[in-house]
Write a structure and sequence with these properties.
The structure is a single chain. The chain is mostly helical. It is built from eight helices and no strands. Helix 2 packs antiparallel against helix 3 and helix 2 crosses helix 4. It is globular and about 55 Å long.
Length: 194
């Protein structure tokens, strides 16, 4: 759902006054990109759903402090990125704890669900190729540093350099360097995988 800058400002003002319908329209305008960002960073549909929900709950709570000079979508993506970073910290802590506990054959922290699922593909061969391609891209993304991966995924979401810099709280020149290095590493990793 695409909304103009003026419409967005009006919706933000209304939502800040408690208008849930206005906030719902704002949320719909950014929801798919927030979910896709969370899915790419966590590689878990369940975690992406949770992070998307937490992102918009947090946005609703903090809407009165929203700065109108940045787009709502960029602000929501910044919140989602911070939620993903928290997820990584907790995931690392859970793995550390599970390494210290005896193994009884069950792994309650193992990823659940599929990393990629596309019901629109008509034939199994195409679905298999898509899954292989997605796995190869995920593996290539894993070769990047956290900052390079975040910048590459945000750029892949169609964000401008200035928006990415604002979301990641980094200078545009640094973002360009992260993207350059990410492209180089991804090209190399994907070339090796072919």
């Amino acid at each position: 759902m695409e909304i103009s800058t003026e419409e967005e400002k009006e919706l933000i003002a209304a939502a800040a006054e408690g208008d849930r319908r206005a906030f719902e329209l704002l949320m719909r305008s950014a929801q798919q990109q927030v979910y896709t960002l969370a899915l790419r960073l966590t590689k878990s549909e369940a975690e992406a759903d949770d992070i998307t929900q937490e992102t918009f709950i947090s946005a609703w709570k903090h809407l009165p402090s929203f700065r109108l000079e940045i787009p709502f979508r960029a602000w929501a993506m910044k919140i989602a990125l911070n939620k993903c970073r928290s997820f990584w910290r907790w995931s690392s802590l859970r793995r550390l704890v599970s390494l210290e506990t005896p193994d009884d054959g069950t792994d309650e922290h193992a990823p659940q669900g599929r990393e990629f699922e596309d019901h629109s593909l008509p034939r199994p061969e195409q679905a298999c190729e898509s899954l292989e391609r997605a796995a190869m891209i995920n593996k290539a993304l894993d070769t990047l540093s956290a900052k390079q991966r975040e910048a590459a995924i945000l750029r892949g979401q169609g964000l401008e350099l200035s928006e990415i810099a604002d979301i990641m709280r980094t200078a545009q020149g640094t973002i360009k360097a992260h993207l350059f290095e990410a492209r180089r590493k991804l090209a190399s990793a994907l070339k090796e995988g072919l």
